[in-house]
Design brief:
Elements (H helix, E strand, L loop, with lengths): L5 E6 H6 L13 H12 L1 E8 L7 H9 L3 E4 L15 H13 L7 E4 L6 H9 L3 E6 L17 E3 L3 H7 L8
Length: 175
């Protein structure tokens, strides 16, 4: 039997803003546990974690993401524009997925982590091509309404208790 080889694409800013940066009920994802969850639950062989741009002050975060087993990718920016624009990695994610399909790279399906509606056409196309596994929304409240017609077999919410229990960073208690 052929081994399932799914790929995950994570919109890092969307994930962070809709978990750790939420005004109410914020929570932090344990990146190692999240990577294991993607592997065990969705047979993700390779997980791409997209961020807006490199900032010297975030080197520790970048190492943490890579050490957890993610392939870290940054959006290319004109140096004069850094700080004036948001990360906006949507087109980079869409392009990489389409490039992998075009080049007929060996993978089965895509797992997408974002609540952003910009991926809706891509999701519809991947479903049509039977190359879509799941979209994982970081926050139910901020999942784009464009996905409302999507069958429940194609999405889940990271904040659901059963998933959150598996991937949330457990705070160490002081002795």
């Amino acid at each position: 039997m052929n081994k399932v080889n799914n790929l995950a694409f994570i919109d890092g800013q969307n994930l962070y803003m809709n978990t750790a940066k939420k005004e109410i009920n914020s929570w932090e994802i344990d990146l190692v546990r999240f990577r294991i969850y993607l592997e065990k639950k969705y047979n993700v062989e390779k997980a791409y974690y997209f961020l807006g741009y490199v900032q010297e002050k975030n080197q520790e975060l970048y190492e943490k993401i890579q050490n957890a087993g993610f392939v870290l990718l940054f959006r290319e920016h004109n140096p004069a524009m850094i700080g004036k624009k948001k990360g906006n990695v949507d087109s980079d994610i869409i392009f990489l997925i389409m490039k992998k399909l075009y080049k007929k790279e060996a993978f089965n399906k895509v797992v997408l982590v974002s609540g952003d509606g910009d991926y809706k056409q891509l999701v519809d196309f991947l479903i049509e091509e039977k190359r879509f596994e799941k979209i994982l929304f970081p926050d139910k409240k901020f999942a784009s309404s464009l996905y409302k017609k999507l069958g429940s077999e194609y999405f889940d919410y990271l904040e659901n208790k059963d998933i959150r229990d598996k991937i949330e960073l457990k705070k160490k208690r002081a002795p």
